């Protein structure tokens, strides 16, 4: 049996939203708006990219959100660029 996808598993969606809670209020607000606008259309690839972004510190994440920096190294992928573009548009 295959593993449930993000969209088919309400528990996975809830865990992702919980994990997206941040200590920096600005990041938290931006991520809340992101989920309100895009959660229903996120693919598993998008979720993987978002999860990689959420591994960053709050300050590094804010720098990416505000386009002060761009993804580097392992984060420099098309999937991360797509999710980051979605985040920057909210």
From TrEMBL:
<dbReference type="GO" id="GO:0006105">
    <property type="term" value="P:succinate metabolic process"/>
</dbReference>
<protein>
    <recommendedName>
        <fullName>FAD assembly factor SdhE</fullName>
    </recommendedName>
</protein>
<keyword id="KW-0143">Chaperone</keyword>
<dbReference type="InterPro" id="IPR036714">
    <property type="entry name" value="SDH_sf"/>
</dbReference>
<comment type="similarity">
    <text>Belongs to the SdhE FAD assembly factor family.</text>
</comment>
<keyword id="KW-0963">Cytoplasm</keyword>
<dbReference type="InterPro" id="IPR050531">
    <property type="entry name" value="SdhE_FAD_assembly_factor"/>
</dbReference>
<dbReference type="InterPro" id="IPR005631">
    <property type="entry name" value="SDH"/>
</dbReference>
<dbReference type="Pfam" id="PF03937">
    <property type="entry name" value="Sdh5"/>
</dbReference>
<dbReference type="GO" id="GO:0005737">
    <property type="term" value="C:cytoplasm"/>
</dbReference>
């Amino acid at each position: 049996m295959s593993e449930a996808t993000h969209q088919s598993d309400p528990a996975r969606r809830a865990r992702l939203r919980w994990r997206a809670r941040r200590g920096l209020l600005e990041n938290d607000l931006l991520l809340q708006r992101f989920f309100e606008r895009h959660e229903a259309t996120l693919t598993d690839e998008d979720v993987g990219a978002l999860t990689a972004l959420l591994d960053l510190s709050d300050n590094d994440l804010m720098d990416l959100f505000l386009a002060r920096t761009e993804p580097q190294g392992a984060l420099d992928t098309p999937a991360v660029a797509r999710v980051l573009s979605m985040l920057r548009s909210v």
